[in-house]
Known about the structure:
Blueprint: E1 3-8, H1 13-23, E2 31-38, E3 40-46, H2 50-56, E4 64-70, E5 85-86, E6 92-100, H3 103-112, H4 125-133, H5 138-146, E7 151-159, E8 165-170, E9 175-178, E10 183-186, E11 198-201, E12 207-210, E13 215-219, E14 222-224, E15 229-230, H6 246-252, H7 254-267, E16 285-290, H8 292-309, E17 313-317, H9 318-321, E18 331-337, H10 343-354, E19 358-363, H11 369-373, E20 376-379, H12 392-406, H13 413-435, H14 438-447, E21 452-457, H15 462-476, E22 479-484, E23 502-505, H16 512-524, E24 529-534, E25 546-550, H17 558-576
Parallel strand pairs: 16-17, 16-18, 18-19, 19-20, 21-22, 21-23, 23-24, 24-25
Antiparallel strand pairs: 1-4, 1-10, 2-3, 2-4, 5-6, 6-7, 7-8, 8-12, 9-10, 9-11, 11-15, 12-13, 13-14
Helix pairs in contact: 1-2, 4-5, 7-12, 7-13, 8-12, 8-15, 13-17, 14-17, 15-17
Bound molecules: fructose -6-phosphate.
Amino acid sequence: MCGIVGYIGSKQAQPILISCLEKLEYRGYDSCGVAIDSDGIEVYKDAVRVKALGEASPRFKGTTGIGHTRWATHGPPSQINAHPHLDCNGNIAVVHNGIISNSPELKARLIKEGHTFISETDTEVIPHLIERYYKGDLKKATEAALSEIDGSYAIIVLAKDKHELIVARKDSPLIIGIGDRENFIASDVPAILDHTDRVIYLEDGDLGVVTSSGVSISRNGSGIKRAEQKILWSVEEAQKAGYEHFMLKEIHEQPKVIRNTLAEYSRETEPVLDLGKIRDTGRESIIMLASGTSYHAGMVGKYIVRELLKLPARAEIASEFSYYTSVLPRTVAIAITQSGETADTLKAMKKLREADCRVIAITNVVGSTASRIANKTIYTRAGPEISVASTKAFTAQLMALYWMAMTSSITDTRRQSALLTELRQLPGKVQQILDDETGITELAKYMSKYEHAFFIGRGINYPIALEGALKLKEISYIHAEGYAAGELKHGPFALLGEQSPVIAVVARDNTYEAMLTNIKEVKARKSPVIAIVEQGDEDIDKLVDSVITLPKVDTLFSPVLNIVALQLLAYYTAKERGCPIDYPRNLAKSVTVE
Ligand code: F6R
């Protein structure tokens, strides 16, 4: 989604802004631009990559500036629609992340008043509104403009010769990085990590004035203090460290992520959240709430809670849940979101809080909006996830869910302690898969020739079939569908055949026999079958075309090993097809619009 950056200090702003924008590329974008307070406000923008923008742009002199990566919503990607946007006189420049829902009315009114618009964006109304109110006090004019705006925004306003940047947020993330006689603004931490690890997270409704020597924040006209926080992620963690892509690096980081996440939780003396007590407190059910890959983690969570705690858990797609006309009041919701900024998930969380439900967030980003909406937050320790396709964050989310369930009051304590022992062995088993990628890279060559694929799984591995298909489609552009294996015969069979390979995630649990039957049915319809199986499964070899063999593990943890194999399969297939793996077309890392 759009990324915004700002710099004010004593150094030349333009190269700093370009390098900060490069760090935000992972959020997904289609055009970009910068504005510098030079001899007047100088703007350079285009529908190109940040690197190309940096190379083509004239060198504007100036120590205050703003920059933007745009992910088109209103109007196609183009030079004109790219940010920053200007007022009529070119003295006020604005970068914006979010959506102004009443922009048509505001624009019509401003045109009547004599303002001229050149782009198709909703954002352009902001500099014009500020211009309308500007009488020398930029903060006041911005405040007045924002009071007329409906929708979501994170903005930075730059005005000629003002030596200050005005920032504001509502439903879109924005942080201020504190430097030494210089300050930075960004929509996300990785953008500024090269320069500072001290940040202030702005909250909805905050308006700030940032100069090179200070930051002052107000809400509803009164000044307030926001605590400075130290970022624990290192610069190295946010870099590729010799890997060809962030995605591969992040897949390979998973043993460490599992270890770190578990180590962190083990230090807690209390269970992170005692789900077993939920019945005692009179709460009726648990829902897992999330979007995309995080929703698949929530689906696995549903199986974990049902299996270990015998509680009636459900998983809900956040964007659907927000439109249910009723919410059961006695519900505990576990909202899972890597970024903590996904608009769909935040909206559903707010709805639950309004219905007086308890909301627990599982998120990877300290201080994110999700953590502020939730009654309680459980952090995953995945480190910054840069690749658009989520991998290590998913595994860390699973760890949080396993740990939460396994440290709850489970009656079967023998199973509990056996599972804890197995859980600690998981990093080693994931490492074994990573150390022997050759089989998977060969299969990826084979997969790369197809345009369609089905992924099937059962039970706790049904969400893994969905996630495997999502990974493949988003980065390799192969049309892939995940199905509960038993559902294939209820329709999708019509599409089976030599051109539709089926990837079967096979678990040695009570679903095994049914899965073998499903595989035979698929083979009878001539689809090639690749099976993901655990070591020692000799029966399956005879039925399928290829197997990926993984270390043995309790079925409860099999999703972790299976997904690592499927992430690698997706990665190498996409690489084989020459796709831009870390920045798939049309996708954004942090989806901050509904
Ligand atoms: C896919 C992917 C997305 C995200 C989804 C939710 O690889 O990354 O499906 O999982 O946009 O994002 P978060 O977890 O940040 O709420």
